[in-house]
TrEMBL record:
Belongs to the TRAFAC class TrmE-Era-EngA-EngB-Septin-like GTPase superfamily. TrmE GTPase family. Keywords: Cytoplasm, GTP-binding, Hydrolase, Magnesium, Metal-binding, Nucleotide-binding, Potassium, tRNA processing. GO terms for molecular function: GTP binding; GTPase activity; identical protein binding; metal ion binding. It is found in: Cytoplasm. This is tRNA modification GTPase MnmE. Mg(2+) binds at S237, T258. The lineage of its organism: Bacteria, Pseudomonadati, Bacteroidota, Chitinophagia, Chitinophagales. It comes from Chitinophaga dinghuensis. InterPro entries: G_TrmE (IPR031168), GTP-bd (IPR006073), GTP-bd_TrmE_N (IPR018948), GTPase_MnmE (IPR004520), MnmE_dom2 (IPR027368), MnmE_helical (IPR025867), P-loop_NTPase (IPR027417), Small_GTP-bd (IPR005225). One of its GO terms (biological process) is tRNA wobble uridine modification.
């Protein structure tokens, strides 16, 4: 079945570097013909006689014409990225040269690779499990320190280790149950129920932890929508400029950035805060409570976190309390930020708002306590008991499979509580194992694999 997935007989080729003009481009071949094909275009040396993991300089010649002078890197399978024979041709970066070399290589017998096909082969050859393969795509797309760290950790097998632990727990459980089934006539409980409970509880805890990490994984991978709102003249533009001066993230290549709704992106401690355009609120002359701009309110509700900025000199504690009540009624995750503390002095202001908990006092204009605000923003999205060092789920496919695992485990615990027979418990455990296997790729089907790898870029 595996052979059919990619047609392992053929040799694939693609440009591995970013499209367009660059100093150097890398063209990568993988497959049983990789060495023969390159050799036929590289007269300076017989590549078939060279050791693996060596570099060779020479010309690429096609139809009697030199296309470029290149460096060829040799990786003999299985000690290569895909597990097959791999050759990387580093040529000059002109798109014309890249195209000429690709043409020559395909004429000599290679076929253009589909997106993700190199990594797919690596997976099918057992070089990576599926979570590691997927993290290759994440790694390429990572755009902040935090998303890079989680992708890197996954690629090196962090997540897979936890899943193997989970699998072992479940397999021990089912072994105990099945042992009991073998001796059912004897009416003995081999599988000590207390031990079974312990195993299911341990597995449950592991999974819950992973499932909970998804919220944060999502934040790390995709950033968090953030709205800075408040009455006119509260100081929103001033604050925004202060933040942007220090923390503006490069947005052009952040996946999923919708230009019309996202104004700017801040990178604070590796987390991307996508500032939602709430121009409606900023330009309105009404107070925030009376803004009829439905759309803007909807945007606020979409935000992962809302920074409510108010002028401490103009607002009363009662006003503020009303605003808090309305945020709470709408289930909005908000941060209260009192601005312009420089005018009346911090202590007088703190006295004025002493009844209200959790206000951050800043002066946007003087940059006072703006760092505290950044810290508070990070805390707001990272709250919970998840540590960035832990394994973090960033992939929706893994998340939904883990939820299925959790459901199956619930059935197991319920089953034990209700004294259902061992063979039924074993079925539920097998279901849990099945969904775990889907995550790592031990249980999978062709369509699903094709789908997963099709989301990669070509050349990976
Ligand atoms: P927005 O309407 O909420 O965007 O408010 P702006 O950022 O345009 O600020 C309104 C006015 O308040 C401007 O004149 C700012 O210079 C001023 N302002 C903003 N922050 C502070 C502050 O911390 N202290 C003082 N004294 N003035 C501020």
């Amino acid at each position: 079945m595996l052979g059919k997935l990619t047609g392992f007989d053929d040799t694939i080729v693609a440009v591995a570097t970013a499209p367009g003009l660059g100093a150097i481009a890398v063209i990568r071949l993988s497959g049983s013909q990789a060495f023969d094909i390159t050799n036929s275009l590289f007269p300076s040396k017989d590549l078939l006689l060279q050791a693996s993991h060596t570099l060779h300089f020479g010309g690429i010649i096609a139809d009697g014409r030199i296309i470029d002078e290149v460096v060829v890197s040799l990786y003999k399978g299985p000690r290569s990225y895909t597990g097959e024979d791999v050759i990387e041709i580093s040529c000059h970066g002109s798109p014309y040269i890249q195209q000429q070399i690709i043409d020559a290589v395909t004429k000599a017998g290679a076929r253009l690779a589909k997106p993700g096909e190199f990594t797919q082969r690596a997976f099918l050859n057992g070089k990576l499990d599926l979570t590691q393969a997927e993290s290759v795509a994440d790694l390429i797309a990572s755009n902040s320190a935090a998303s890079h760290q989680t992708a890197m950790q996954q690629m090196r097998g962090g997540f897979s280790k936890e899943l193997h632990l989970l699998r072992e727990q479940l397999i021990t459980f089912s072994a105990l149950i099945e042992l009991e089934l073998d001796f059912s006539q004897e009416d003995v409980e081999f599988a000590d129920r207390t031990r079974l409970y312990e195993l299911v509880t341990a597995a449950n805890t592991t999974i819950r932890h992973l499932i909970d990490s998804f919220r944060m994984g999502n934040v790390i991978k995709n950033g968090v929508n953030t709205a800075i709102v408040g009455k006119p003249n509260a100081g929103k533009s001033t604050l925004l400029n202060t933040l942007l001066n220090e923390n503006r993230a490069i947005v052009s290549d952040i996946a999923g950035t919708t230009r019309d709704t996202i104004e700017e992106v801040l990178n604070i401690e590796g987390i991307l805060f996508r500032l939602i355009d709430t121009a409606g609120i900023r330009e309105s002359n009404d107070t925030i409570e009376s803004i009829g701009v439905q759309k803007t309110m909807e945007k606020i509700k979409e935000a992962g976190v809302v920074v409510y900025l108010f002028d401490v000199n103009e607002n009363s504690a009662e006003d503020l309390q009303q605003q808090i009540d309305s945020f709470q009624a709408d289930n909005i995750n908000f941060l209260l930020v009192g601005n312009k503390t420089d005018i009346a002095g911090e202590s007088a202001i703190q006295e004025k708002f002493s009844k209200i908990q959790g206000i951050l006092f800043i002066s946007a204009k003087n940059h006072a306590h703006v760092d505290d605000l950044k810290q508070a923003l990070v805390q707001k999205v990272l709250s919970g008991d998840i540590n960035t060092e832990d394994t973090i789920i960033t992939n929706a496919r893994h998340h939904s499979a883990l939820q299925e695992v959790l459901k199956s485990l619930h059935d197991v615990s319920n089953g034990m509580d209700n004294g259902v027979p061992g063979d039924l418990l074993a079925l539920d455990i097998r279901r849990a194992l099945h969904f775990l296997g889907e995550i790592t790729g031990e249980v999978t089907n062709e369509d699903r694999l094709d789908y997963i790898f099709s989301k990669f870029c070509i050349g990976k």
